[in-house]
Amino acid sequence: MYDALSLLHGLDAAGLVKEADALARRFAARVPLTDGLQVARLLRALRGADRVDARATLLARDPEAGASLDDPMGIAQLLRMLSAFDADDRARTLAGRTAALVLTDTDAVAVLIETMSELGLRDSLPELAAHAAAEAPLGQWRETSSLFTALKKAGQHRSAERLVSRLPSVGFADAFFGYGDHAEVFAYGREPSGEPAAPWFWRDLE
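Below the sequence we write its predicted structure tokens.
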């Protein structure tokens, strides 16, 4: 699709409008809907050139229903373009599917949560937030921090707390105990169940 869009831009630059329009309609009819990122890029190109027919062709194929759920970044970009075209119902439909998102890229999930919040797609946010907080990979601190920040900014505080509760099990105990009032609440440690440990003293170990 990169080469295809370059060709489309090249035809426009050469003033070959008729040829560019025909190519745009062909792309609109054939771009794989599973690739949300490429669909979003094509929609952006069609918007810039004001190609109404090609845009209508692409939207008539219901890209919001065909986008793969294993590419959060692609979904985020597609949501932006659908909103840009005032296709609010389509955007809501796509946002509603994100509860079943495949969680392999924590950074991209954070971007998607931020995007949905920014676009006002809040009805579907709680399910996605809960899904991400419970299941997203937390192997890297930067990605984990990004997800936490996105949840907080989106007002998904309960999911943010759920994410924090997972930190000790993935090697980020310092961050867990440094969060909020955890240093005080868990002054005597944390049970495997997640509950604060009962008070104890060194003499109790003798």
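The CA atoms of residues 26 and 54 lie 8 Å apart.
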